[in-house]
Write a structure and sequence with these properties.
The chain has helices spanning 15-18, 28-43, 60-71, 92-110, 126-134, 149-167, 185-190, 235-246, 283-299; strands spanning 5-12, 49-52, 75-78, 116-117, 139-140, 196-198, 212-214, 219-220, 223-224, 251-256, 303-304. The chain is an alpha/beta fold and 311 residues long. Strands 1, 2, 3, 10 and 11 form a five-stranded parallel beta sheet that branches. Strand 8 and strand 9 (223-224) form a beta hairpin. The longest helix has 19 residues, at 92-110.
């Protein structure tokens, strides 16, 4: 890449999925939350890559929303069918079916086959790459090459206990043992941090024509950046990590989730949302943080593209 390129990856983990009711009728993530993001994207004429959970698209309102995003020029990618937290520990057949089902649903929704994938919770393995190769995917960005991810896993553990205590029952979308049921711990400490071509490994390059592009999470010195950090760490720390990953770099992407833009009002009268985070932060502040990062990248000379434009 000769020019400085930035992407935005929206991992569309819906409210319906989070409360175990996917597909949810009138899911605010589809009907309200994305429009908040779109206002900023339209202001700067930016198209992004949106990775959807296949089961969510079985509701016609959700699928119509996704079709409109595609028609607006955004890329629609695959984020599995049911978003199992222990994704890499599933059997080869289960992993293939999770990807294949969503592949078909996306094609039926927008009339175009997806070419990109990201695993639920970045929980990937060689088995996942094998299925992506079989289904002719062009890229994957499930590789998380930073131990910072461990903080997120422990936060999931805390959320599990919180829901267990408040609702007197466990979360509907994952079991306690699923949180640390992964095959990628070594990648957090020793994984590659720059895009590369591969076939069946997250460690070994392979530049053959049928190889797949791997886009690891932006990570310099094992310090990764994604938007949620802005609402967890002090500003000086996130500023340091952001600058570390963008200064003198030719490629960067912002990874974010709908939960980064959800408000308490969105969750009103919806049961099972006790574990939702970041809703105590004002929406104006969250949108301002995102817009400021967009402006900074543009000022640094980055051009925004969708991932499929880089293949």
């Amino acid at each position: 890449m000769n020019n400085k390129v930035a992407c935005v990856s929206l991992n569309f983990d819906s409210i319906g999925h989070a409360i175990g009711k996917s597909p949810m009728v009138d899911d605010p993530t589809f009907s309200i939350v994305f429009n908040r993001i779109r206002e900023i994207l339209d202001k700067y004429n930016i198209k992004i890559s949106i990775f959807v959970i296949g089961k969510d698209l079985e509701d016609h309102k959700n699928s119509n929303a996704v079709k409109s995003w595609h028609n607006d020029g955004h890329e629609i990618g695959n984020h599995s069918y049911t978003h199992p937290l222990n994704f890499s520990s599933l059997s080869k057949e289960e992993i293939y079916d999770e990807i294949k089902k969503t592949d078909e649903i996306i094609f039926n929704t927008i009339g175009k086959k997806p070419v990109g994938f990201i695993a639920p919770g970045w929980n990937s393995s060689k088995k996942v790459l094998h299925s992506l190769m079989k289904l002719n995917y062009k890229y994957d960005h499930s590789l998380f090459s930073s131990p910072i991810l461990l903080l997120g896993l422990f936060k999931l553990f805390y959320n599990y206990l919180k829901v267990r205590i408040v609702e007197k029952s466990p979360p509907k979308t994952y079991k306690l043992r699923h949180i640390f049921n992964r095959r990628d711990f070594i990648h957090m400490f020793f994984g590659r941090t720059k895009p590369f071509q591969s076939k069946k490994s997250y460690t070994i390059s392979n530049n053959e024509p049928d190889s797949i592009k791997i886009f690891p999470i932006p990570s310099s010195y094992r310090l990764s950046y994604w938007l949620t950090l802005e609402y967890v760490f002090p500003k000086k720390i996130t500023e340091f990590i952001f600058n570390l990953n963008t200064s003198k770099k030719n490629f960067f992407y912002i990874l974010m989730h709908p939960a980064d833009f959800i408000t308490e009002e969105d969750l009103k009268n919806i049961d099972g949302t006790q574990a939702f985070e970041r809703i105590n932060i004002s929406l104006d502040k969250k949108l301002q943080v995102f817009e400021n990062r967009i402006k900074q990248l543009l000022e640094m000379g980055y051009t925004f593209k969708t991932f499929d434009q880089l293949i």
